[in-house]
Specification:
GO terms for molecular function: alpha-glucuronidase activity; xylan alpha-1,2-glucuronosidase activity. Residues 466-691 form the Glycosyl hydrolase family 67 C-terminal domain. Keywords: Carbohydrate metabolism, Glycosidase, Hydrolase, Polysaccharide degradation, Signal, Xylan degradation. Belongs to the glycosyl hydrolase 67 family. It is a single chain. By secondary structure, this protein is of the alpha/beta class. It is 39% helix and 9% strand. Strand 3 and strand 4 form a beta hairpin. It contains 23 helices and 15 strands. Helix 3 runs parallel beside helix 6 (132-147) and helix 21 (620-643) runs antiparallel to helix 22. It folds into three domains: 20-159, 2-Layer Sandwich (Chitobiase, domain 2); 165-489, TIM Barrel (Alpha-Beta Barrel), CATH 3.20.20.80; 524-570 and 607-703, Alpha-d-glucuronidase, C-terminal Domain (Alpha-Beta Complex), CATH 3.90.1330.10. The protein has helices at residues 2-17, 35-44, 55-72, 97-100, 105-111, 132-147, 199-210, 230-243, 258-261, 273-289, 315-326, 348-356, 417-424, 437-441, 472-483, 489-500, 505-526, 557-561, 585-592, 602-605, 620-643, 651-683, 698-703, and strands at 49-50, 88-92, 116-121, 124-129, 155-159, 165-169, 215-217, 249-253, 295-298, 332-336, 367-372, 396-401, 452-456, 567-568, 608-609. The protein has an eight-stranded parallel beta barrel. Strands 1-2-4-3-5 form a five-stranded mixed β-sheet. The structure holds beta-D-glucopyranuronic acid.
């Protein structure tokens, strides 16, 4: 007996001090500490029932049982039939009269296939929707309420996704390297598929379903046609089979020249009948394996990728050819607008609009054009892409980058929800005030039914999925905002912290404060007042504003900052490239005039003289100094605040974040010193003596090389 007790005690201790490696993401389901809440929850959840016979319903039952065991410490049998003691009932409206009586016809129409309804009063809880997937979403929502310790006695929730496609784009290569990936290798183990199903695929699908993500493109936009060969399609089918019950559709990237590479055709000309037949046959082959295949994602005529322009055809010609091939199967084509060409001397900022605006109205109805949030490239801060609002006849899909290619990669803690929201809330003025980017992509502004948002995934085979433990929040934020872009960054951070770490109020308050400031802090020490694309080239790790020797002009940082003896910044006004002219006149107003320009974008749109006076009273040079120093100092503040959290969370993740903050501080100082020393060669002005002076020379910073930086 004594030995048994000791054993039990040992077991208990192990579970308390269990190191957390982050694999469980925000689905940890740890015991609820608040006793009165726990009692409340237990009263609400008696003899829980999840109706339905589908694989999705089975998943919902399993999730509920795992979660309730973890959260309450009691094991629950989740019934699939209602009995007299059931007070917690989940299922589609069709599955039970009890549930259908709860909702009106109007509500059912409104919630569509994925929206859900939760109604609860003391001793009764109902979760329902039109499909088992909607019910699964409802259950995840309910579990989030429990995980974040919210009241569940009186609930009247109707939640409907604002966007139809809520997607992740994996830039994963078939050899398992991940372009711009900072979390290890690809989670797709192509070599061992289709026979070996890694548990990770299931855990991945579950995590996505918990935040409403319902589509994934498995492969790099810089595509390899081998993914379209029969052997690989068998592997893709296996992944699609795993993902299906979680409501996730699979897309593939289509290399435009595949008919030549795989079909041995002489051309990939989209207007060539044989090419069209090749794609039709390929689509038929895919759909015979994967009946609900989502469709193709295409990067064409950009950064050396093949495309229709190789045959003097337009992007619409290329997209429509593929769209015709998938249309009989209800598939869609997502065509990327991230295009620019080295041969084109026009400001890179303008090239996508130049190519795409004339094509508005020329795309088939099953084509979406996927537009990056800004016209250059996922910078720490960039104005919204001028295509938003400029193609009313075409459904535009938002592309964000969740992986932090330009935002500190593997080592910097940056919470991206504020960046995403800044873009979504931007006003295009396309149809008057209030024509936000969000309203462009949700279809409401121009009456589109195809709608979506994607994020370039930050997921790899690192044990914690995202490399930096805090980067999990960005995957989470993408899903939550694609479901409802009105959720605030504060709420997202709050939910995520509570579920991922702890409900301790002091912990949540301080750590949330850090999270909400991280993005501005990074902008300050990397790209203040509108600077952009001054990262080192190739791997984009660290600063490289001096780089000027690459063949393509727009691959050189000097192209973007244009520092000279007079000043710094890219004049994109009417007296310069006039990229600003691609925005609606009302939107332009905030940037057009150098003396009234929103200073966050000053050097984005203006070449400002070194002595130009900022609103702070400082000169541009002194403002740059101030920003770079404030940014780097703020990382010290992040570290100080974080150290206070030691007793609140598990040691492993606490230490991981602490060590990474040390690296982040070093990198912030590196950015600060390297950029200021370099820009100083033009401004010829000192770093005021009250600032700690750089301890290394500009030559030292220029000499640094990182041949094995990840993701390249
Ligand atoms: C750039 C990345 C490059 C991608 C490209 C794209 O550096 O690796 O292939 O975007 O989005 O930012 O196609």
């Amino acid at each position: 007996m004594k030995r048994l007790n000791v054993l039990l005690l040992l077991l208990l201790c192990c579970s308390i001090v269990r190191a957390e490696n982050g694999y469980d993401l925000w689905l940890r389901y740890v015991p609820i500490k608040n006793k009165s809440l726990l009692l409340e929850y237990k009263k609400q959840i008696v003899s829980p029932v999840v109706l339905g016979t589908s694989a999705t319903a089975a998943i919902a039952r399993k999730e509920l049982s795992v979660a309730l065991l973890g959260l309450t410490g009691s094991s629950y049998l989740i019934n699939s039939n209602i009995n007299t003691s059931s007070v917690f009932i989940a299922g589609t409206v069709k599955s039970s009269a009890v549930l259908s009586a709860l909702v009106t016809k109007e509500e059912l129409n409104r919630i569509g296939n994925e929206g859900f309804i939760i109604k609860a009063k003391p001793g009764k809880t109902f979760i329902t929707g039109n499909t088992d997937l909607a019910v699964l979403y409802g259950i995840f929502h309910y579990l989030r309420l429990l995980q974040t310790n919210q009241k569940v006695i009186n609930l009247n929730v109707i939640s409907i996704p604002k966007l139809k496609l809520r997607m992740l784009n994996h830039w994963d290569n078939l050899n398992r390297t991940v372009e711009r990936g900072y979390a290890g290798f690809s989670i797709w183990d192509w070599h061992r598929l289709p026979t070996f199903i890694d548990q990770r695929y299931i855990d991945y699908a579950r995590a996505n379903a918990s935040i409403g993500i319902n589509a994934v493109a498995l492969t790099n936009v810089n595509a390899n046609s081998i993914i379209l060969t029969p052997a690989y399609l068998e592997k893709v089918k296996k992944l699609a089979d795993v993902f299906r019950p979680y409501g996730i559709k699979v897309f593939l990237t289509a290399r435009f020249s595949s008919p030549i590479e795989l079909g041995r055709l002489k051309t990939a000309d989209p207007l060539d009948a044989i090419v069209q037949q090749w794609w039709t046959a390929k689509a038929n082959e895919i759909y015979s394996l994967i009946p609900d295949f989502g469709g193709f994602l295409v990067k064409a005529n950009s950064e050396g990728q093949p495309g229709p322009q190789d045959y003097k055809r337009t992007h619409a010609d290329g997209a429509n050819m593929l769209a015709n091939a998938v249309a009989p199967h209800k598939g869609i084509v997502i065509w990327r607008a991230f295009v620019y060409a080295a041969e084109n001397p026009v400001d890179r900022h303008m090239q996508a609009n130049d190519d795409f605006v004339p094509l508005d109205g020329k795309f088939n109805s099953n084509v979406m054009v996927q537009v990056k949030n800004g016209a250059i490239d996922f910078m720490p801060r960039e104005p919204f892409h001028p295509l938003f609002g400029a193609m009313p006849k075409t459904p535009l899909m938002m592309e964000f980058q969740v992986t932090q290619e330009y935002l500190g990669q593997a080592t910097n803690w940056v919470f991206l929800a504020p960046l995403f929201k800044e873009v979504l809330d931007s006003d295009t003025y396309a149809k008057g005030k209030g024509s936000t980017v969000a309203k462009v992509i949700d279809g409401s502004l121009d009456d589109h039914t195809l709608t979506g948002m994607t994020g370039v995934a930050n997921i790899g085979n690192d044990i914690n999925w995202t490399g930096h433990p805090m980067a999990q929040a960005n995957w989470y934020a993408l899903g939550r905002l694609a479901w409802d872009y009105n959720i605030t960054s504060d709420t997202i951070a709050d939910e995520w912290l509570r579920m991922t770490f702890s409900n301790d109020a002091a912990f949540v308050k301080s750590t949330k404060q850090i999270m909400l400031r991280t993005r501005e802090i990074m902008v300050d020490y990397m790209n203040p007042i509108g600077l952009h694309h001054i990262m080192a080239t190739g791997h984009h790790y660290g600063p490289g504003p001096w780089v000027s020797n690459l063949n393509r002009p727009e691959w050189n940082p000097v192209y973007y900052h244009k520092a000279d003896s007079v000043g710094i910044g890219f004049n994109r006004t009417a007296s310069g490239s006039n990229a600003i002219g691609q925005y609606h006149p009302e939107a332009r107003k905030q940037w057009e005039n150098i003396s009234t320009c929103n200073e966050k974008y000053l050097l984005w749109f203006h070449h400002a003289s070194w002595n130009h006076k900022m609103k702070s009273g400082r000169s541009v040079w002194n403002e740059l100094v101030y920003r770079y120093y404030t940014g780097a100092d703020s990382v010290k503040w992040m570290k100080q605040e974080w150290l206070k959290q030691q007793s609140k969370i598990d040691a492993q993740r606490f230490n991981d974040v602490s060590m990474l903050l040390d690296t982040q501080l070093e990198e912030a100082k590196w950015w600060r010193n390297a950029c200021l020393l370099y820009f100083q060669t033009f401004s010829k002005q000192p770093i005021p003596s009250n600032y700690e002076q750089p301890d290394k020379t500009l030559d030292y910073y220029k000499s640094l090389r990182f041949p094995f930086a990840p993701g390249n």
